[in-house]
Amino acid sequence: MNAKARDLSSTIRLTIPGRQTAVRDGLRDLLDTLLLQSLPEDGRGTAEIVLAEALNNIVEHAYAHHDGEIEITLQLRQNELLCRISDTGLPMPDGKLPSGVLAPLGAFEDLPEGGFGWHLIRSLTKDLTYSRDNGRNLLSFRLDTQQSPA
């Protein structure tokens, strides 16, 4: 694995730099682990979508003005994947997760920038929580490994 990763059978811990190329490489490394390879195709697809959206949001927003690392912990429990993502970037606006409610669509040039990712994250996860503790953003959620991303 290119990133700093530890695979402890049903638990994976991965630390990646908060940069776009590192997210792509880190996702590839995660998807290559035995833990995620053991998931049904739909569950693996759901995990990839949600992790990609969450990690890209951290890079684009939390680390927009400074560098840092992103810590990812995944734990498999029966038909659920427990996910925890931590970073030292900027906090969420107002200390809350975005609503993820899609704005009404109009003309192509009027489409909002963003919002689609949080809609996907909220639609595909369970028990989505965010907190800020000692300068760290903590995002956690559960994924049904049997759920289809469609």
TrEMBL record:
Q: Say if the entry is tagged with keyword Kinase.
A: yes
One GO molecular function term of this record is: protein serine/threonine kinase activity
Keywords in UniProt for this one?
Kinase, Serine/threonine-protein kinase, Transferase
One protein family per Pfam:
HATPase_c_2
Q: Which residues form the Histidine kinase/HSP90-like ATPase domain?
A: 22-142
Is Protein biosynthesis among the key words of this record? no
Enumerate the InterPro entries for this protein. Anti-sigma-factor_SerPK, HATPase_C_sf, HATPase_dom
Family matches, as PANTHER family:
ANTI-SIGMA-F FACTOR RSBW (PTHR35526:SF3), ANTI-SIGMA-F FACTOR RSBW-RELATED (PTHR35526)
Protein name, entry field: ATPase
State the organism of origin.
Cypionkella aquatica
